[in-house]
Amino acid sequence: CNIKDIFIIEEHEHTIQHSDGSLDGLFLKLQIGLISGISLIVGTMIGSGIFISPKAVLEGTGAVGPCLCVWAACGILATLGALCYVELGTMITKSGGEYSYLTEGFGPVLGYLYSWTTIIVLKPSSFAIIALSCAEYASAPFYPGCTPDVVVTKCLAVASLLLISIVNCMSVKLASYVQNIFTVAKLFIILVIVVAGIVLLAQGNTKNLSNSFEGGTTSFGAIGLAFYNGLWAYDGWNQLNFITEELIDPYRNLPLAIIIGIPLVSVCYVLVNIAYFTVLTATELLQSPAVAVTFGDKVLHPVSWIVPLFVVFSTFGAANGNCFTGGRLTNVAGREGHMIKILSYISVKYYTPAPAIIFNGILAIVYIIPADINTLINYFSFAQWVFYGLTALVLIVFRFTRKEMKRPVKIPIAIAVLVVVVSCYLVLAPIIDKPEVEYLYCTLFILSGLPLYFLFVFHKFHWTRRIMSKHKHLTMQDPNQMRRRMQGL
Ligand code: ARG
Q1: How far is the CA of 193 from the centre of ligand 1 (A)?
Q2: pTM of the predicted model as reported, rounded to 2 decimal places
Q3: 3-class DSSP string for the chain
Q4: Which atom of ligand 1 sits closest to the CA of residue 321?
Q5: CA of 445 to the centre of ligand 1 (A)
Q6: What would the pLDDT profile of 438-464 be if each residue is shown by its tens digit?
Q7: From the CA of 141, how far away is ligand 1's center (Å)?
């Protein structure tokens, strides 16, 4: 192989063509630029959380002042977490996010447990939760004065999951257009709420914000739960690391997209919360099933319908981002032999990881059936923060064990230490405060990956691979490894 072959990869849509003309692999194209990167982050972070969670954060904190502090602290935490991912993502430019870093840092067993938990539960359940909130808002106008029929919302949620999965299977470009358009839409409604809030503040509506620390809770676990709900609204800050291989100029665009995207969302969230408190008292906010809609009804009167409409857009966009990155993780895990091989295949026609996206979509549909949104969010965050903490720990460990590795971006190690400490708190606080059997189930589920690992991965008992090996030319390879191999490195 020579350098000419590398050009053939670029020109011939990432299929490696050897000098003898044989095809060796198929890659996802590099087609995500800075704007798409930012909108993947912003568009996945802003979903339903900012329109629904304010109630749960206030419940946990007990007063307006601490509530706003928790929102700001969650923003800072998301930013610090993402800074760790900037260093890791520019050191290890593989897609798959935490999966690639945990595998590299702590070995394949932990990587496998992560992929097992995330691919089977975390990704599809968050996809399902977001689709359900989208369906709830979409069906609400047809049921004035009462709650929409559960069957109707679930069917609508399934329909949106199907639509999003089809779009993502058909074209990466189309999926990122969808992402960009819906991100603009959600930023628009946030702007409307913020501007309305600023006008109200200027008119002197500040009484809900005075004496705001009175009555705040001091319970360790309640604050932990408030954080969980706030952090759910911020969740998605790590999404760009799942698609590093498809990023154009990842060394520039990954850090930039993270540094622009996350602080932007944090500022929006704090301002939106202040806006809510300009019209709603703490009690009113706690009684409202959907804060943003109540806000709209009070303030935007003739056009108050725009709020639920844009929440539908916002959740739809977030679900799309979730599907986009979920597909990539599944695909990478398939490629590494941690999931069945077929999941690593790329559609020759559309250049998308179609089998992985379909698999993710099917699991999400399964989760729609029994879903109770709130419990899912709480358990989701517990498992999620175990992995965020471990990933930040990889960064610390690498500083000692992999001193020689190139670090295009190097962050102060104190940031990673802080993220590890905070994740320990977030994982332990609710368990110590209120031990519930569900946390045990969650842990058991994660650990149940171990026997599977030893059976199917360690002992190479991969019957599926043998069946699929005749389709080898469709299998996605690790592009970086391929390029290195081709350059004879
Ligand atoms: N932050 C989003 C929301 O407020 C939820 C993100 C779900 N998590 C994810 N990794 N996609 O709706």
Answers
A1: 20
A2: 0.85
A3: CCHHHHHHHHHCCCEEECCCCCEEEECCCCCECHHHHHHHHHHHHCCCHHHHCHHHHHHHHCCHHHHHHHHHHHHHHHHHHHHHHHHHHHHCCCCCCHHHHHHHHHCHHHHHHHHHHHHHHHHHHHHHHHHHHHHHHHHHHHCCCCCCCHHHHHHHHHHHHHHHHHHHHHCHHHHHHHHHHHHHHHHHHHHHHHHHHHHHHHCCCCHHHCCCCCCCCCCHHHHHHHHHHHHHHHCCCCHHHHHHHHECCHHHHHHHHHHHHHHHHHHHHHHHHHHHHHHCCHHHHHHCCCHHHHHHHHHCHHHCCHHHHHHHHHHHHHHHHHHHHHHHHHHHHHHCCCCCHHHHECCCCCCCCHHHHHHHHHHHHHHHCCCCHHHHHHHHHHHHHHHHHHHHHHHHHHHHHCCCCCCCCCCCHHHHHHHHHHHHHHHHHHHHHCCCHHHHHHHHHHHCHHHHHHHHHHCCCCHHHHHHHHHHHHECCCHHHHHHHHCCC
A4: 11
A5: 22
A6: 788 888 888 888 888 887 777 664 555
A7: 24
